[in-house]
């Protein structure tokens, strides 16, 4: 937590900076961004249902549900920003610079690639660099788990994430040089 002694983490990150291209800090027990040790901030924005309609109306009778009015890609992007990124900029934390956002859906997306490209354009206009869209099966709840090491050798698992990894690498390479 922010009030604990973070000097061991700071020392470990400083020692590892020359040995690795990218160091990923995975917070434990809290999910606010690390402003002291991290050199880049990339958010994994997990979405449950993509906001592509404004509301759903439940009508009397079994299985009678209307989808609601479709949202534009720009409106969908605004809802995603409000839903997933508010914790980064809210009290008591100061704003941070995000190097990018990876959006992860827990299931197939109900829109096509053109719609997602429109969401990405609006995110970029708002200053949030979109790095990709990931489709994932539901994570075990309430805990998130990293993949087993053997799963990382499964090409069908790894190949889904290669385009996002490439865009992440491009975003990190485009950052200004670090000042000492």
What topology emerges from the helices and strands here?
Blueprint: H1 7-16, E1 42-47, E2 57-58, E3 65-66, H2 73-89, E4 100-105, H3 113-125, E5 130-135, H4 155-158, H5 162-173
Parallel strand pairs: 1-4, 4-5
Antiparallel strand pairs: 2-3
Helix pairs in contact: 2-3
Plain-language structure description:
The protein is of the alpha/beta class. It contains five helices and five strands. The strands form two sheets. The chain has a three-stranded parallel β-sheet. Strands 2-3 form a two-stranded antiparallel ribbon. A hairpin with a 6-residue loop joins strand 2 and strand 3 (65-66). The longest helix is centred in the middle third of the chain and has 17 residues, at 73-89. The protein is globular and about 60 Å long. The mean pLDDT is 76.
